[in-house]
Sequence to fold (260 residues):
Amino acid sequence: MAKSLNDINGLIQVSIQAQHFDAGAEIKAIESILVAKGGAANMGAQALFVGLVRGDEPAKAELATSNSSAKQSLQGLDIEHYPAMTQSSIESICRDAYSRWPYEFCRVIHRVGYLSVGEPIVLVLLVSSHRKEAFAACEYVMDYLKTSAPFWKKAVFTHGEQWVDAKTSDADALNKWS
Amino acid sequence: MVKVLFFARLREQLGVAEQTLEWSHSDTVLALAEHLVAEGGDSWQVLLAEDTVVAQNQCVVQRDSLVSDGDEIAFFPPVTGG
Fold:
């Protein structure tokens, strides 16, 4: 049974934070919320996505030649955002996902500030009755988060920094939802 | 007054994160951007670039959206989160 907008807001929890997160602790926390609400009976599936800082971002030509003495390797990402808009834009994506796949709970965490290679950036945890909607809603939230939530990554190399360009493959990923 | 914000690459290119603008009339986002370019010079042309995104009161809008006194307008490059 689909819920009203007010009810949906209780099923969505979005955090923008600098701190590290623990995916296992997040799963336990959501399970406790659902048990307390009496909704645990509908919890048949949990889909979890965690995105990490990949180490293979290539340095652009101008950065590569500005210091030819050293091979550039990525140290980490500096993530900027638009604080007044970030939270509401992700919540809006989660509500859109709910209208397609009425789920039991959606938890999103996105980190900001400096993150070293290998650190987690983003978490989407989708709890629903069945696996198909858990997978689909989780992927939908990630696809739209990547293309519409106001975050910007700056790649920090051993010598220099550069803004990461938006990928057309991310925009193309939205086609499967239209 | 309209509060204008710039993020990421745009903020660095323009050397400014935020400014306020007298805005007592009703006109479009495009007119506001053209006004900023006229005031700021050539480097501000980036505001008119096709891939520059504009948000009005924290929602993405098209260039023909009408700007009112008290609005917050943000210009930024395509997003790269996740």
In short: The interface with chain B takes residues 51, 79-82, 84-85, 88-89, 110, 121-122, 142, 145-154, 163-167, 170 of chain A (CB under 8 Å). The CA atoms of residues 89 and 149 of chain A lie 6 Å apart. Chain A has a mean pLDDT of 92.
